[in-house]
Amino acid sequence: MSRILIFDTTLRDGEQSPGASLDPKEKLQIARQLAVLNVDIIEAGFPITSEGDFKSVSSIANEIKGVCIAALARAVEKDIECAAKALKHAKSPRIHVFLATSEIHRKFKLVKAKEEIIKTAVKGVKLARKYVDDVEFSPEDASRTEPDFLAEVVEAVIEKKKKT
């Protein structure tokens, strides 16, 4: 039977609106309500970005049970390690690894060739799997990524997840 999972990004994406800012206490209050609503996955934040975001993810991971708690991390070792540390007390932790894949991001943001993007994505997923069983991978700017390359990146990540 198919099941739809509710993945809520309010605590991470919600702050990207102009003028929106939540402190750790407010984020914990929202997380409590999301748990009451039976949300399946709460993306609690992006721990590497600030001490406040790290504290928010940590407190949510420590208190909220019965819900998967996710932390966002670039496919970078320090991000992934920080996310794992913030999720240390989560009963059901997830690290959400992302990496830009579009040509414009490869050329001007990351300055990496396609082969390097694939290696970086796989390495990031592999590292995250050392800390948690539940790893999500997102190709940033996927809609502008060449379809064949996007498939290649995603297939490489899936293969790595199977092997670890």
- What value does the average pLDDT take? 93
Distance between the termini: 27 Å
Biggest β-sheet strands, sense, barrel: 5 strands, parallel
Q: Low-confidence parts lasting 5 or more residues at pLDDT below 50?
A: none
Q: Write the element-wise H/E pattern from the N-terminal end onward.
A: EHHEHEHEHHEH
Can you describe what's shown?
- There is one protein chain.
- With 164 residues, the protein is of the alpha/beta class.
- The chain is 51% helix and 18% strand.
- The chain has helices spanning 10-13, 24-36, 51-63, 77-86, 103-110, 114-131, 147-163; strands at 7-8, 41-45, 68-74, 93-100, 134-140.
- α3 links the parallel β2 (41-45) and β3 (68-74).
- The longest helix has 18 residues, at 114-131.
- It is globular.
- It starts with 6 loop residues before the first strand and ends with a helix.
